[in-house]
Amino acid sequence: MMYHTSPSLLCADQLRLGETVELLNGLGIDWFHIDVMDGSFVPNFAFGADAIRAVCSAAKRPVYAHVMAVNPQNHIESFAALGCDYFCFHLETTNNPFRLCQQIRAAGMKPAAALNPATGVERLADLLDCLDAVTLMSVEPGFSGQSFLPFMYDKIAALHRMIGGRPVLIEVDGGVNNEIARRCLGCGCDIVVGGYFTLFQKGKAISECYQSFEEAIK
Ligand code: DX5
Ligand code: ZN
User: Fold this and answer.
1) How big is the chain by its Cα radius of gyration, in Å?
2) CB 193: neighbour CB atoms within 10 A?
3) Structure confidence by residue, pLDDT tens digits, 31-79
4) Which ligand is nearest to the CA of 135?
5) Is the pLDDT at 1 greater than 70, yes or no?
6) Helices 178-186 and 152-163 meet at what angle, rounded to 10?
7) What is the CATH number of the domain that holds 165?
8) Fewer CB atoms < 10 Å away: N or C end of the chain?
């Protein structure tokens, strides 16, 4: 069975984070997507160290930290110690992505880079050999529930071509619904972030949402 989604814990009922992680463990998702927001790179705050540690200890799948923060180099050591498996920095936050990738690997995590919608994939050309994954933002980062930007399909396809045979996964993040997920996966994306319009729909059980997601992407 193939799974193609990473649930965004930002969308979970924050009073029931533990139960939600348990439930998602049972569904066999690719990895847990945990958003870290510093109120500076993005106009919002999300998940601090204690919450990340708690998620990492309960998660039976890898934990992918999507770090929407300036100075990502300051957080590598601490995120490794919290138990994160992937450290995904924003390309817009660094002039030294190669050094960052080396530091992430040296800390025992897998390096990933995220690109804002306005950042071109050609900036990744020389970096792809250092990365395990790329997150393409399909909305401006900061909030859940925004509309998917339609030019993303071409961007996914372009990155997929650039990656060629390399073992670099493409994740698409923001505004994805079941139909959009199907199209993204068709363009060469490996994993869509499961958020507000897929796994965490208002008034619907997560397992029910997951079933209809799986049905839709078949
Ligand atoms: C937005 C975050 C996303 C968000 C997903 O900055 O990075 O992970 O939770 O958004 P929706 O819920 O719209 O799919
Ligand atoms: Zn995210």
Assistant:
1) 16
2) 28
3) 999 999 999 999 999 999 999 999 999 999 999 999 999 999 999 999 9
4) 2
5) no
6) 30
7) 3.20.20.70
8) N
Q: Ligand 1 atom 7: the closest Cα is on which residue? A: 141
pTM, two decimals, is: 0.98
Enter the ipTM. Answer: 0.98
| Mean pLDDT (the chain, rounded) | 97
DSSP bridge pairs for 163: none
Dist CA 9 CA 68 (whole Å): 15
The total of structural domains in the chain comes to: 1
Distance 78 CA to ligand 1 centre (A): 23
Q: In what order do the strands lie in the sheet with 63-68?
A: 5-7, 191-194, 169-173, 133-137, 110-115, 86-90, 63-68, 32-38, 45-46
The catalytic residue among 30, 85, 173, 190 is 173
What does the angle CA 65 – CA 57 – CA 63 come to, to the nearest 5 degrees?
25
Residues with CB under 5 Å of ion ligand 2 are 35, 66, 173
194 CB near ligand 1 (under 6 Å): no
Ligand 1: atom nearest CA of 176 is 14
Question: Does 173 qualify as catalytic in the annotation?
Answer: yes
Residue 35 known to be catalytic = yes
CB atoms within 10 A of CB 192: 30
Q: Residue 3 has what pLDDT? A: 78
pLDDT of residue 28: 79
Which of the ligands is closest to the CA of residue 112? 2
Q: Which ligand is the nearest neighbour of the Cα of 141?
A: 1
Q: Which domain holds residue 59?
A: 5-217
Catalytic residue among 35, 85, 132, 190: 35
